[in-house]
Amino acid sequence: MPEKIKKIDLEKYSSAITLSDMEIFIFPELLYSLVLANIMSPVIWRWKDDPWFKDINNMSPYKKILRLKQFIMDNFDFNLDLETWGLTTKEKEISRFSPFMDEKMISKSNALFGYEGDKYYFDVDIRKHFGIDKYNSNVIPYWKTETVEAMQAFKYKDNYEKGAGECVSIATLYSAALFIICKIPLEDIFLMATPLHSQNFIDLKEGILTNNRRLVTKNMWFNGTKLTFKAQRAMRNEQITIVSHASGYIHTIYPEASIDIKAYDRFEHKLKKFLATDINFEILCNFLRQETRFQKCFQIKHFHNGKYRFIEAEKAYEYENTSSSRLNEHTMDKLLLEIDSFDFHSEPIEDRIYLDNFYEFFKKHKIDFRDRKNIDKLINELQCPHIEKSDIFGALFEFCHLEPRLPAKDKTFIKSEAIAITKDMKRDDIIDYLESLRGKNTTTDLAFYAYRDFSRTDWAPFTKAAVERNPVSIEGAREYKDDEIIKIIEKMPDESIYDGKRVAQPDEVWNYGRGDGLEKAICLLNILKNRNNYELIEINIDKNTVNLILDNLRITFISKKNISGKMSFPF
């Protein structure tokens, strides 16, 4: 049995069990601990045997990632339901976190506590945006980050046909699967958390971003579609709070960072390069696709059947919605041939710039936004009476160049033991290696708690999390009497979503309607403890037999976890 967790660390280690977005913000080591928990899990390793990944080792790295993306798209939905993991209050959570971070600092940087960081979120009314406005102003969701097992288990919930997870869950799932399935080195994967989102940057060629279930390449980032614009929302409007990596992390609030400074410099350089592009004809067309208000400045001249005809840019862009062709140098003619002849004019349209003329312009001029002479050349071509040149140029510059708000490097960089897992290591070897690092690397130690392994962890953090942060089972059982809820839990299938000596939390048992006898006992204890003022509360576990004792109440469950010990309350 491992050493008991010190009282001062109990909040952090119990947070490794519940893994809410708030907890990850306060304890940034938790983000990578879940990546490691998913790497230790047998679930993703079993994917290697799925026919979908047959011959994947013969594919290029990018094709491997595309294959993984489609698997995740097919097997997992994005879920941000407020009810999934229940609700808490600002007062309760601020009280929890006050020893670790000042309340004003929390409110300034975390969306759930008011988030004073960005005007954008005031404009969209953040509480209404996420549906929290139907509750009192102090109510906030837990938004727990799911392990891969909990993500898979959504298929057992009503109205779900497959797995699901919120953005942090999907980001950490991607990180683990990129390593296991695609053999992308962990040192080339960087996790980024903002107050409202989480995504990854993969250092492969020009770079790839994971965004929820999808992937975004540099070309896609600048394609001007609505889907890409949504994918850009967090990067354009939010401070990146945490960057997490195999070498450590950096947090925008904390004065110390454990990430390797050379790795962070590489990430910063590659990400900034990913988010900037020179302007050419295709980029101009993509810009107009996104910024529709400027389409009225342009027309397209098309030579057809021996004469020129003309069409408003906005009409041509409308036809993209029903065509596989786009307005760009490769498929513009094909798209224009698909347009109804009645939409064209026989004469040029007054006060509109010829969009197609820019094709020749960009052949002659390379436009680099860092060169003022280049900029002036382009400005002189943007003569439109409908709009100020400065407006269109300012929007074009924003489209082509995004400066990410990364955690500043004015930190004390603490050298820590990097996690040096290689892509050729087998799962058992990785677990043994991580076990050997636990005394040197806190993230690795926390990973075993996120992994829920009762054979390798002190039970007190799990117990604390179980009775303090599992409101869904309590609320779901509210309409039932004690004897009724006992029967409901007893009748649940005796199936754990976790293998071996790993144990589910009460709300996982309740949400997925199943559990091992030990998990059922903990779930029932959470419900009944909340209702009654018991003096004696404990669970005695003797391999296959679990006895829940609440004063004079004795309930016995059968367990397959093969665990022995006692869970006492208070812990």
Give the topology, please:
Layout: H1 10-18, H2 21-26, H3 29-40, H4 42-47, H5 61-75, E1 76-78, E2 87-89, H6 90-97, H7 103-109, H8 119-123, H9 126-129, E3 139-141, H10 148-152, E4 163-165, H11 167-180, E5 189-194, E6 197-202, E7 208-211, E8 214-217, H12 218-221, H13 226-237, E9 242-245, E10 248-251, E11 256-257, H14 261-274, H15 281-290, E12 298-304, E13 307-312, H16 313-319, H17 332-338, E14 353-354, H18 357-364, H19 372-381, H20 389-400, E15 412-413, H21 427-437, H22 442-450, H23 460-468, H24 471-476, H25 482-491, H26 506-512, H27 517-531, E16 537-550, E17 553-568
Parallel strand pairs: 1-4, 11-15, 12-14
Antiparallel strand pairs: 2-3, 5-6, 5-9, 6-7, 7-8, 9-10, 12-13, 16-17
CA-atom Rg in angstroms: 27 Å
Mean pLDDT: 92
The tally of helices reads 27
Q: Span from first to last CA? A: 16 Å
Helix content: 40-55%
- Low-confidence parts: none
Q: Which structural class should the secondary elements be placed in? A: alpha+beta
